[in-house]
Amino acid sequence: IALKRAGIKSKDIQLIIVATITADMPFPSVASLLQNKLGAKEACAFDISAACAGFIYALTVASQFLATGFYKNALVIGSEVLSAFTDWQDRSTCVLFGDGSAAAVLVPSKKRSFLGSYLACDGSSSDLLCIPAGGSRLPPSLDTVKNRLHYIKMQGNELFKLAVRAMVDAAEKAAKKANINISNIDLFIPHQANLRIINAVTQRLNISLDKVYVNISRYGNTSAASVPIALTEAYEEGRIKKDDLIVLDAFGGGLVWASCVIKWI
User: Fold this and answer.
1) Whole-number Å distance between alpha carbons of 188 and 185
2) CB contact at 8 A, 19 and 30
3) Cα dist. 115→59, 121, 195 in Å?
4) Is the peptide bond before 140 cis (omega within 30 degrees of 0)?
């Protein structure tokens, strides 16, 4: 659908980036598998693992390739199957997560549309939200399966304060790089993880609720797919008009957080 709306054929795609933490397998990448299914034989393809901030990370990376002229277009996707890693015996997390996917096609424009971005990470708090086993540190074994270490583990109370502070900081810094004032934006699309987090962030940024898009009640937390799904639905519902200033903002495991400002053209 994204390619059709952009008027671009699969065979003409030059770059595919998939933001995900729930890849089909450790390797090859989801992007490689997708490249084959699309028949995009000329496309470079790779994944980005930046949890819930993955789509904004991927948008930022793709925009650099286009800005330098290295590629003429890019297919950027946020996709997750979090149900595969949800522990249904853990009532503190099993009600939070969902599956989803959304895509965007980027092409160069004479008008500047990717106005600014801010990416950040704090690896010292990585244990607050993670899937402990399945990698080279704790390869799959009888013990890791028995101890349920292949499921999402989250320390929600500690994450709440960090998420609010980080998302506010990221949005402010992205707006500064874009040389705009937060008060002048037309739409704010935050990561759909927790309504309390969204409300706290928007209050601190002094953004009125009519400028905030929320769909968490329909899908839950879909990690890297969260922001692009919300962006797609906002567009389809007529919430986005030409020349609108939109701020995307996300926080996730890593810990990572990111924000960007785009102008709809």
Assistant:
1) 7
2) no
3) 12, 21, 27
4) no
Q: What is the pLDDT, as a whole number, of residue 229?
A: 98
Q: What are the backbone dihedrals phi and psi of residue 143, each rounded to the nearest 5 degrees, phi first? A: -70, -45
Distance from C-alpha of 13 to C-alpha of 74, rounded to nearest angstrom: 6
Q: Which of 3, 5, 118, 12 is CA-nearest to residue 71? A: 12
How many angstroms separate the CA atoms of 120 and 170, rounded?
8
Residue 195: pLDDT over 90? yes
**Active site (annotated) includes residue 191:** yes
Residue from 73, 130, 221, 260 carrying the catalytic annotation:
221
d(CA 150, CA 263): 40
Banded pLDDT at 257 (limits 50, 70, 90): very high
Q: How do beta strands 74-81 and 15-19 pair?
A: parallel
Quote the CA–CA distance of 202 and 256 in Å, as a whole number: 19
pLDDT recorded at residue 14: 98
Residues 6+ apart with CB under 8 A from 202: 188, 190, 209, 212
The pLDDT of residue 110 is 86
Q: What is the predicted pLDDT for the residue at 153?
A: 96
The amino acid at 170: A
Active-site option among 73, 191, 194, 260: 191
- Residue in the block written with tokens 């106005």: 115
- State the pLDDT at residue 156: 84
246, 261 Cβ separation under 8 angstroms: yes
Catalytic annotation present for 52: yes
Average pLDDT over residues 170-180: 97
Q: Which of 52, 73, 130, 260 is flagged as catalytic?
A: 52
Q: How far apart are CA 68 and CA 115, in angstroms?
A: 15
